Amino acid sequence: MPLDSLPPGFADILGPSGLLTGADMDAYLADWRGLYRGQAMAVLRPGSTEEVAACVKLCAAQGIRIYPQGGNTSMVGGATPQDAPRQVVLSLARMNRVLDVDVADMTMTVEAGLVLATAQGVAAEHGALFPLSLGAEGTAMIGGLLSTNAGGNTTVRYGNARELMLGLEVVLPDGSVIEGLRRLRKDNTGYALRHLFVGAEGTLGIITKAVLRLFPAARETATALCACPDEDSALALFRRFRAADEGAVRAFEYMSGTGMGLVLRHIEGVALPLAEEAAHYALVDLSASREGAGLRGLLESVLEAALEAGEVTDAALAESEAQRQAIWKLREEHPEAQKRAGASVKSDVSVPVSAVPALIREASAACRALIPGARPVPFGHMGDGNIHMNLQQPEGMAADEFLARSHDIMDAVNAVVRRLGGSFSAEHGVGRLKTGMLEEWRGGAEYAAMRAIKAALDPRGIMNPGVVFPATP
Ligand code: FAD
Ligand code: 2HG
Ligand code: ZN
Predict the structure, then answer these.
(1) Which pLDDT score, from 0 to 100, does residue 443 have?
(2) Which of 289, 306, 334 is the last residue of a domain?
(3) What pairing do the DSSP bridges indicate for beta strands 165-171 and 206-213?
(4) For tag attachment on the chain, is the N or C end more exposed, with fewer CB atoms within 10 Å?
(5) Across-strand partners of 377?
(6) Which atom of ligand 2 is nearest to the CA of 331?
(7) What is the CB < 6 Å shell around ligand 1?
């Protein structure tokens, strides 16, 4: 569709460093998975809340659609513009300052464009912990993480991004600003609007600043990679750790033999620290904020009992931080390995924790029956019930042919998820990919209420159109 040219006014607000056009926009117009590509009159790169508000006001006045973007690591095409003539990407990347770290109140106030790994590093410099942790942490930004209510590896102990946020500053679709940067643990003053913007995927406004919760730093860790004979054994292992000391479990991740095989084949610098490859793996990561917590002893005694019970057939215990990181690399490189191994279809789903083994088994069988030769690659956050029920294309099949079946594959997985009482999106959100599913799964009063909120806050429909709700012309 032919693009309109950017109306005057934006350059005055943003200055030369705040505006990208032409080929400089390339990286902002496509998503990480390569599913979507759009266009934009410009990428706006404001440096302050005032600049964001002024840009949004101008967009509202001119009917220009806005695609808010953080690190652009969305797995569901949430930050990618469409193919429409009057729209801009608004990148938060220049708003990346840490405004305040308060170890007395255990809070950190930051701008939305701060990269997660930087936030973790700053917290650590102050002897504290910002516990959100995921594979994209070197790129994903606080505003994007809050807007998707990101989960990741530590949900089992610390909750999702929502639980790590105390206050927000948000620019609404008319350019007005909600100044909600309060750092209160208790704040029951009418509707908790801050929570409306967490998980809204940029459809209700632009998060510009946030107050985050900090926790005591970890002073002791103990980590192991375990080979398990089946999915039930992996879950039984999780239960053993939970029963032994629930507070010690920082992460409990599941990986299949197929996924681990892809990592070992496609990622350089990794090695399996076990005697032989297995069909199922569990990664257990324990941490404590006090020294002398005895985590190594806990790890050994629980694994010993699990070995005796036949739930674990082999285990590698990290003897150093380097070995711990090497074990985590085997887990965190799953998305990249899948990408390098060809086309894959992702289903980021959740079920009650007790139903995870059934999910993995039944969804894998459904996928194999649908596309003979396709390779299920289930992995993820077993401890909180969120499995990435991904499917890798059959070897030798054309990628396009396989991807043409994407929605059939997701439907087959979702049928199992629905039967098990789960959700079609656990942590990645709805984005552009799953708008149809949202309507199908959350129809009736729930969907109508979501629509009413959207219409009330964004009556012109300029904020991230096509995301969460289907695009209207
Ligand atoms: P973007 O991709 O830029 O945007 C995401 C959504 O938020 C879009 O809808 C966008 O419009 C909106 N948005 C962005 N910034 C703002 C803002 N300031 N105000 C309003 N709306 C905004 N996700 C998990 O939950 N757990 C994981 O373990 C995990 N692992 C991943 C591993 C890899 C290798 C990759 C590539 C992705 C992974 N993700 C994971 C997905 C992704 O990293 C998260 O969804 C993350 O929260 C997106 O952050 P971002 O800054 O990249 O946001
Ligand atoms: C992870 O847990 C991410 O690694 C990405 O959520 C999952 O690639 C995926 O499907
Ligand atoms: Zn995940």
Answers:
(1) 87
(2) 334
(3) antiparallel
(4) C
(5) 390
(6) 4
(7) 32, 68-75, 78-79, 92, 112, 134-136, 140-141, 143-145, 147-148, 150-152, 201-202, 206-207, 335, 427-428, 464, 467
Flag whether pLDDT at 239 surpasses 90: yes
pLDDT of residue 94: 98
Residue at 268 is within a domain = yes
For residue 162, what are the contacts with CB-CB under 8 A and spacing of at least 6?
146, 149, 195, 198, 199
Q: Nearest-CA neighbor of 464 among 87, 11, 196? A: 87
Residue 195: which domain range? 98-216
pLDDT for res 284: 98
CA of 145, nearest ligand number = 1
**Residue 233 Cα to chain centre, angstroms:** 27
Distance 427 CA to ligand 3 centre (A): 7
The pLDDT of residue 415: 98
Asked whether the predicted pLDDT for residue 473 surpasses 80, the reply is no
Q: Give domain status of residue 129, yes or no.
A: yes
Query: pLDDT (tens digit, 9 = 90+) per residue, 305-319?
Result: 999 999 999 999 999
What is residue 17's predicted lDDT score, i.e. its pLDDT? 86
CATH number at residue 282: 3.30.70.2190
Same domain, 119 and 208: yes
Q: Point out which residues pair with 325 in neighbouring strands.
A: none
Q: Do 117 and 155 fall into the same domain?
A: yes
Tell me, yes or no, whether 267 and 329 share the same domain.
yes
